[in-house]
Design brief:
Number of strands: 2
Helix content: 25-40%
Strand content: 25-35%
Structural class: alpha+beta
Radius of gyration: 11 Å
Largest sheet: 2 strands, antiparallel
Distance between the termini: 22 Å
């Protein structure tokens, strides 16, 4: 299964964010405390439906 896009509404430090993903490779980069881990966490929560 491929994730085509992510829509975050009031999740952690994102009030509204839509991310379109590429089927082959995606690189998440940015400065410290910009929300990179929050994007990974949102994928985890949708996949497993529990908090790690």
């Amino acid at each position: 299964m491929y994730i085509e896009n992510i829509l975050l509404e009031n999740f952690r430090n994102y009030s509204h964010q839509e991310i379109k993903l590429n089927k082959n490779i995606n690189i998440i980069y940015g400065n410290n405390a910009q929300g990179k881990t929050n994007i990974i966490e949102s994928i985890f929560l949708c996949s497993y439906r529990k908090i790690f």
